[in-house]
Amino acid sequence: MNWAQSAKLPKEVTLSEAEHIYDTSMYVRANINDIKAHYPVPFYNPSIDRLYRLKEIVEATE
């Protein structure tokens, strides 16, 4: 979460052929809100996974 809150993010990013994020700041906020509200309930682990995937893509393009 610290990385997502402090990273310089592009406005848009494509995570896969089926996933294009048009507003990365909103995407990050939504996932962080899910994590804060529901952690450590395993059902919400995809929110954490999505932030890791975003981090991988952003760091690979830097």
List keywords for this structure.
3 helices, mainly alpha, 2 strands, two-stranded antiparallel sheet, 62 residues
- From the spread of the alpha carbons, the general shape counts as globular
User: What quaternary form is this?
Assistant: single chain
- Which value, in Å, is the CA radius of gyration? 11 Å
Structural class: mainly alpha
Strand arrangement, major sheet:
1-2
Give the % helix.
55-70%
Describe the structure.
By secondary structure, the protein is mainly alpha-helical. It has one domain. The protein has three helices and two strands; from the N terminus they run αββαα. The chain has helices spanning 2-6, 24-38, 45-61; strands at 13-16, 19-21. The chain has a two-stranded antiparallel sheet with strand order 1-2. The mean pLDDT is 92.
Task: Offer a concise description of the structure.
This protein has 62 residues and is mainly alpha-helical.
Note the topology:
Elements: H1 2-6, E1 13-16, E2 19-21, H2 24-38, H3 45-61
Helix pairs in contact: 2-3
